[in-house]
Amino acid sequence: MARLKIYTFPDGVLAQKAKPISHVEKTYHKLADDMLETMYGAPGIGLAANQVGILERILVIDTEYDMTDVESGELHAEGSEVVGGKIITNRKPIIVINPEIIHREGKTAIEEGCLSVPEFTSEVERSQKIKLQYQDIDGLTKILSAEDLLAVCIQHEMDHLEGRLFIDRLSPLKKDSVKKKLLVARREKEEE
Ligand code: NI
Question: For the whole model, what pTM was predicted?
Answer without folding.
Answer: 0.93
